[in-house]
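Section 3.1: Structural characterization of target chains.
Under the original work plan, the team committed to producing a structural model for every single-chain target entering the pipeline before any wet-lab resources were allocated. The record below documents one such target. The sequence was received from the expression subgroup and is listed exactly as submitted; it comprises 274 residues.
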Amino acid sequence: MSYKLIALDIDGTIRTIDTPISDRTRRAVATARDAGAVVTLATGRTFRSAARNSMELDIDAPISAAQGAYIAHPISGETLRHHTLTEGMALSALDALGSWDGAAGGMQIIGFHSDGIYVSRLSEWAAAYGRRNAMTVHVVGDLRRVADIGLTRLVVVGDDEGIEALERGIKPHLSAQMLVMRSLAHFCEILHPDGGKDSALAWMCDYYGIERSQTMAFGNGYNDIQMLAWAGLGVAVGDAVPDALAAADRIAPPLEEHGVAQLLEELLSQGLIG
């Protein structure tokens, strides 16, 4: 048995904001692709940001962004799957969030849509995010006004302690109808129930006719836990969050030691990829 589909998280797995994708990782990914494996990205980033990283790795397969809610081709830009929040879901989520917007710790709710982000007020964080990602920031006063436009996700930004408390507080109210999770320690995301990375990986299997047991996924964060548990071989990099380490089948060395490349090289040498 060999692995025919390899899904890579980006941040903290193959790069950081300050650390680019290494040449060693690029070589390992190219060798895996040459061996016949499909290599894709599975990230919480926006599609535009994810596509820039896919270019660095010469990925020509569809990639999943926004935690898996959005799948598109990185070269043509063609959208292949997009699970948006229905109006009812968005309104229910906003009701559950209640007074969290602007609560202690500077929390803010952000609505993500293909043409930009929507906020109730313009904050320093929102303005900086828009500049950094070349996205339009729409200030709408009340996010309920845009509940019906097909938001890809709602993200609450705040301090680590506040976001942990928020996730714990709203999950009982929303988890039956939506996906609620921290992606970063200071981000809590609310998505369509099929908007996770595990669902995106399952879609990729159907798209390519690949068995679940033939998939390998690499990750490090809270948003990778379900994907690592779903994949045939879930691999957490060595400095991943504890829950991701617990969900993984194998632990690779940390990013600083090119952990993804090391494991790919090992499996390639054993003829287990492609």
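The chain has a mean pLDDT of 94.
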